[in-house]
Amino acid sequence: QVQLVESGGGLVQPGGSLRLSCVVSGTIFSIGTMGWYRQAPGNQRELVATIASNGATNYADSVKGRFTISRDNAKNTVHLQMNNLKPDDTGVYYCHREAWRLAYWGQGTQVTVSS
Asked: HSE of 31 in the Cβ direction (CA atoms, 13 Å)?
């Protein structure tokens, strides 16, 4: 079955950086759109960034210029490089995959931005 496993979350001070990774197994990774979503306590899950199979990217306005999504099809991995982190970036970050009208989620990784 399709599995998505995230890593790279943690505690970081405002202005710091983190790099999230998501390894996908059980499917043809190069086909389909990969994305990162996040959910803060008391809030709905929201889109952070997506990357299509052709490399086209899309970002939430709140992270443009600070976050970069990328994919490595040879390693079945999608990354989210997060720079200049702010306390509002705190939340659980989820990896998402959509292909052939099917959607899958990872288990999530916690990101906390605090001094």
From this structure: 7
Burial 47-78 (b: 16+ CB within 10 A, else e): ebbbbeeeeeeebeeebeeebbbebeeeebbb
Q: Which residues contact 110 (CB under 8 A, 6 or more apart)?
A: 9, 10, 91, 92, 93
Tell me the pLDDT tens digit for each residue of 16-64.
999 999 999 988 888 999 999 999 989 999 999 999 999 999 999 999 9
Percent of the chain with pLDDT over 70: 100
**Cβ atoms of residues 94 and 80 within 8 Å:** no
Residue with tokens 């306005």: 61
Supply the mean pLDDT for the chain: 96
